[in-house]
Amino acid sequence: MRKANGVYKGRKIGSVQSKDRMLERHEIVVKKLKKGIAVRDIALMTGKSTATIMKVKKAIETFI
Q1: Residues 10-56: tens digit of each pLDDT
Q2: CA-to-CA distance for 64 and 51, rounded, in angstroms?
Q3: What is the pTM of this model?
Q4: If 0-12 CB within 10 Å is exposed, 13-18 middle and 19+ buried, where does residue 46 land?
Q5: Distance between CA 45 and CA 53 in Å, rounded?
Q6: CA-CA distance, 30 to 38, in Å (whole number)?
């Protein structure tokens, strides 16, 4: 009902976050990955999901 009334709009169709922007948003994760800390340990320290950390890790690897 709220979506039909225009209150909730959600993400725009086709919107994609660039890899640069993602790395900026998750700067702490990038630093910890570069130190060689395990994905699950980073998830516990930062409160971010392991899936997010894996996305960041993959983005870092494509820049290298």
Answers
A1: 778 788 889 999 999 999 999 999 999 999 999 999 999 999 999 99
A2: 20
A3: 0.75
A4: middle
A5: 12
A6: 12
- What tokens does 22 get? 């993602």
Amino acid identity, residue 54?
A: M
The domain locations on the chain are: 19-63
Residues 6 or more apart whose CB falls under 8 angstroms from that of 43 comprise 49, 50, 53
Distance (Å, whole) CA 60 – CA 39: 14
- Taking Cα atoms as reference points, which of 35, 32, 24 lies closest to residue 50? 32
